[in-house]
Design brief:
The chain has eleven helices and nine strands. The protein folds into two domains: about 5-220 and about 310-320, Spore Coat Polysaccharide Biosynthesis Protein SpsA, Chain A, CATH 3.90.550.10; about 235-305, no CATH class. A nine-stranded mixed β-sheet has the order 3-2-1-4-6-5-7-9-8, with helices on both faces. With about 325 residues, the chain is an alpha/beta fold. The longest helix is centred in the last third of the chain and has 25 residues, at about 225-250. It has helices spanning about 30-35, 55-60, 75-85, 110-120, 140-160, 175-180, 190-200, 225-250, 255-275, 275-280, 285-305; strands spanning about 15-25, 45-50, 65-70, 95-100, 125-130, 170-175, 205-210, 310, 320.
Length: about 325
């Protein structure tokens, strides 16, 4: 096990580290999740989202501050934790880390996760379980398949190249939270994807850092048959919003040829695929249009809309700064 005291050099004295921990009926795990944090974490806020067990009491006994969000969903609970920190008027610079109350986030990864923020290379850092030496072996196959599908939709919708969009182990800076647009918050399990969409819209720099995937009997409240369609729909709307803004309305400095090509590729491709029941196999040409549009969007436009990748000096994180 790592000696957390040796990691204190990774946390400059001018920075404070706060942990937001959403939890619902986590009596079995919450005490260990809170007490397992390193002693240089300044604040731990457990957001009890409508538990009907003694999650709150155990969290208090472990030394956490407990607030309640009355069963609004994990996304709403995280937002409530962020807003509690903002209302606390913490002095100096600080960052907020989200860690689940079921113990699925390894505290050993905290220094790697927060380093890009403290070095000024990112506003928001997502854990990337696929980049960890242990990979996704511990993740159930069904969840791996869902993650693969949502990774591609998320990258299309945001224009980023995120490897693990569903990972909830994240960190963000105080200045990002202070300027965040809190209207229309997504309260459910699609929160990580929704947050990435909003980061791109608001121009925040996004990074990923390797974290370990822990699955030791914890149960998930996600229901795949309702979760995937709902989040997929949200991401497709995000793709339409970004595509119409960037390419149809010209909100980015993109050449007319690329704007026209991507617009025709996405809109024409989707229309062609939708016409398959009436026009037969000719509608499959829409797939080629979508592929061409995605290639131009990903390889030719997005790298121009943001500076190239920046390798954070003190960690394995990779940073994608977004254009304002």
């Amino acid at each position: 096990m790592i000696n957390f005291r040796l990691c204190q050099d990774a946390v400059p004295n001018k920075w404070k580290v706060c942990v937001v921990m959403p939890a619902r009926n986590e009596a079995e795990h919450i005490r260990d999740a809170v007490s397992g944090l390193p002693d240089w974490v300044d604040r731990v806020v457990v957001v009890d989202d409508g538990s009907n067990d003694n999650t709150s009491e155990l969290a208090l006994d472990a030394g956490a501050k407990v607030i309640h969000s009355e069963g609004i969903g994990v996304g709403g609970a995280i937002a409530a934790g962020y807003q509690h920190l903002l209302a606390s008027e913490i002095s100096g610079r600080w960052c907020a880390v989200v860690m689940a109350g079921d113990g699925q986030m390894d505290p050993i990864d905290l220094p790697t996760l927060i380093e890009p923020i403290m070095s000024g290379n990112a506003d928001f850092v997502k854990g990337d379980r696929s980049a960890h030496p242990e990979g996704l072996i511990a993740m159930p196959l069904r969840r791996r398949m869902g993650t693969w599908w949502l990774r591609h939709l998320t990258n299309m919708a945001t224009g980023l190249e995120i490897h693990d969009p569903q990972c909830g182990y994240t960190a963000c800076s105080d200045r990002m939270l202070q300027s965040w647009d809190w209207s229309g918050n997504w309260n459910g399990y699609g929160y990580p994807n929704w947050w990435l969409l909003r980061c791109v819209e608001q121009g925040f720099a996004v990074a990923e850092a390797p974290v370990r995937a822990i699955y030791e009997g914890q149960s998930s409240g996600i229901r795949i048959l309702t979760f995937l369609p709902k989040v997929s729909g949200m991401l497709l709307l995000g793709l339409f919003s970004r595509g119409s803004g960037w390419y149809l309305l010209g909100q980015r400095r993109i050449s007319a040829l690329k704007r026209i090509t991507v617009s025709i590729g996405f809109l024409g491709g989707i229309s062609a695929i939708a016409s398959i029941p009436w026009t037969g196999s000719i509608g499959l040409m829409g797939i080629l249009g979508l592929m061409a549009a995605r290639m131009i969007d990903k390889r030719l436009v997005c790298p121009k809309a943001r500076p190239d990748k920046i390798e954070a000096e003190s960690s394995d994180a990779t940073v994608w700064p977004n254009a304002a």
